[in-house]
Task: structure prediction
Amino acid sequence: MAAHNDLGKEGEQDAENFLVQEGHTILERNFRFGHAEIDLISQKGEVLHIIEVKTRNSTAYGEPESFVNQQKIDLLVKAANYYVQRKNLEVEVQFDIISIVKNHVEFSINYLEDAFYPF
Result:
């Protein structure tokens, strides 16, 4: 597997560990719908969290969360709608981003709750 894929998988595991420590229950990891993939789906209380994880080894080209573009948002919203309908859920849905910078010197997690709205 390519090094960037390994970093991405490590970041998803780091994000999952972080969310569990924050009281989330992880419901799905790498949920796919069509061309969309939701990195993590968790629940905390009555809120369903749709979480995009962005991991980089440097901020030289910008913060990791800046790489979540409108096309990615649209795909996440479609996949989240499908998930909620398929599971017949009556919950509030929140879209979050977990931004991770991880290298041999630095490790930081930035949890952006309600990072964007689906409209």
